[in-house]
Structures are given as C-alpha cells and as structure tokens.
Amino acid sequence: MTNREIIKHIDDGANYYVSLFGEAVHMEKTDKKYYSYLKPKSGEQGISFIYNVRINGLPTEQMKTVIDEMKSMNMPIWLGLDLSDEAVYIFFGKKPTHEKREPKEDDEVYMAMLSEEKPEYQKNDHKIIKVHTAEEFALWARTTNNIFTNGYPDIHPVNHFIWCEKMGVKCYILYHNDVPVSVASIMDNNGAASLEFVGTVSEMRRKGFAKAVCEKAVNDAFADGASIITLRSINRSVAKLYQSIGFKAYG
Prior knowledge:
Helix content is about 35%, strand content about 25%. The protein is α+β, with helices and mostly antiparallel strands. A 7-stranded mixed sheet has the order 5-6-7-8-9-4-10, with helices on both faces. The protein has a 3-stranded antiparallel sheet with strand order 1-2-3, with helices on one face.
C-alpha cells in the first residue's frame, strides 16, 4: 500500500468517525455540495462538526466563499490531509511547508498500521470486555465521556448503541479491581478500520491500561479482516504509546 493510499485511509477514517456521531435519533446530518456537517437537534446535546470537506480544485474565489461559510458556522472542521496548498493558504493564511520534521509536542500525529505489520499479540492478565449489550455500551459511553469531555454526552449512552448493534463498531472496557478505568474502540469502514476513543480515567493513567486495551482492540480488528488500522493522536506523547504498539506516523 502506497503512502498516498494510507493517507487517504486516514482521511476516510476521520470522516467515517465523525459521520457516525450523526447516526442517532437526537442528531441531524446535512450534506452540502462541498462539505458535510452534523449537530444535535434543537434541545438535545451532542457534538457539532464539519467534515468530508471537498474543496480541492475549486476556483479561488469559490474556495474562499466555501471556507468563509464553514468558518462562520463556528464548528470544529476536519479538513483532511490531502488539502491542496492553495486551500491551506486560504484557510490558515500561510503557505504550507513540506519538509520532514519531528512533530512538536502539541501537534496532532496521524498514524497507521498495516495487517502485515501487526505484532504478535501478547495476551495480558487484565479484564477486558468487548461491549455486546445496551447496558455495557451505556457504561462504555459514560466512561468515555467522562474521560474526554468531563461527562458532556458527545456519545449518547442509549441512542448511539446503534454503533455496536447495527454498524459494526467494537467497543472495549478494561477493568481494574472491577472498576472500568480504560476504553478503546474500533470503527471498521469496509475493512479499513480506525482506532478511536482510547483513554484512561485521570487517576489511573501511566499504568499500562491504555496500551493493554489498544492491543486487544487492534488484535481483534486484524483477526476480523481489517487490512489497515488508522488513528489520529492528539499529541506527540500519546503518539509514543501507539508507536510502542506498532503504529507508524504519516502525513
């Protein structure tokens, strides 16, 4: 698989991840001509996001109009790694650089692992469950929301169970002393998977729990037929965890 193909899978994984938030009765998704967005319905809580941005190749003035329109919506935006230099300049106001460099501490790092690169799975002694029931999903969702958003329901503990029930998302919970302390999930988009929602409750970090639940999720994904697993690391320190599992940086 070429680097360009891998980077496209990273973009596709990010867009698929965002789109799944809209797969719930309390959310609404809108597809515009050059981008898509989702947000909670009136009176509901949830994530708002612009994704699947398709502006490469537009005439300059039209590109400016679309970018201004997206910015006016005051939502986070996933632009994609294949964004043209012109689009980068218009959006950020500076020309992109293409030299290779080590990522800075706060840079988002884009990573992937191919099936032929997967390490041998070393089963550990931790109790890790794969979510099957609505009750297990609700626990996973509450734990994940507590880790990432201080409890704000980006993930609805009931309405988003459709992820596991009908959309093939695999969610994992690691227990320590019978208490859920770490989570992860795999979102499989036709054999190209992404590793998402990896986190540990604050008081239990740096004990190897996130690595253990990631290794379980990654092993299962490849066993289920994934050809590639992608992810987006929030910073360089977290990227080191994924590198220790076997992921490589791209883009």
